[in-house]
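stuck on this:

***
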Amino acid sequence: MQTTPLGTRGPKVSRFGFGTMSLLTSQTPTEAAKLVDQAIDCGMNLIDTADIYDNGAVEEALGLALRGKRDKVVLATKLGLPMNGDPTRSGGSRRWMTQAVEDSLRRLNTDYIDLYQLHRPDPKTPIEETVAAFDELIQAGKVRFAGSSVFPAELIVQSQWAAEKLGAAPFVSEQAPYSIFVRGIERAVLPVCRQYGIGTLVWSPLNGGWLTGKYRRGKPVPGDSRAASGNPFVRADDERKLAMVEALAEIADAAGLTMMQMSLAWTLEHPAVTSVLLGPRTPEQLDQLLTADGITLTTDVLDAIDQVIAPGDYVDPRNAGWAPPSLQADQRRTTRETA
């Protein structure tokens, strides 16, 4: 599999990376290790996880799976969302980052993390403190590179400025949701990343299964699907998506591709996208997903997709991944004194 540099400062990573949020959803740690081996054998050198995935259990499973193979992968993990729902064990403060990295290193059974990322913006902590804390971890040899996840464009710029002001290591990557149905980052995030030489890792390229053609008008919802499980972000009754799926299926058929192949190949067509994270739960799913490797789309196909959903648009804004506090009512309305 082709590899490419993660921005202008980061390591070389495979164009498809292995996302592990669902690694233990339907399999044991032993079965998970076999899936990790399969991914590595297929040329996927980027493995992305997070401390919050199954409250650390996924990191522990990776620690076991990567014994004797640690040097073959670029190991990325994230911190910031509350561990076990505890708000005191979250965020991007120096206090929490100093503890969280030690916890992740122990669970992952490694001396260093290749890419350590802040899972979501932390409005309660100055970005300067977070950038400085990442730099301390890099100087200590516990982390090689730092990155962000689901940052708006303005916060990406602020983090770069903070690093320059402090003389600290800047973020080398941004991780965000991106698919044919979730194109919002095309407006500002991807252009800003290109401007600053920041690599981008994108997730949910199939929008919860929608872009495989799994959900269709007049057909029952598959029992093992996210929609059937009650996931509020994957509603199989979304009329706009159902109509778009029909149009996209016609484009894929005309190109001689499955909708899944077309959708995955599409995410890599944007020049600012470095790697697409795939989250297979079985060996069969991984084999199927990787049939998209090496596929390029013609200009006619790309133009036809743009006619279905405009560049920079969200079909469902809830798929954006993060909503800034500034949109909350108490932040956008003048305070009124009560009698």
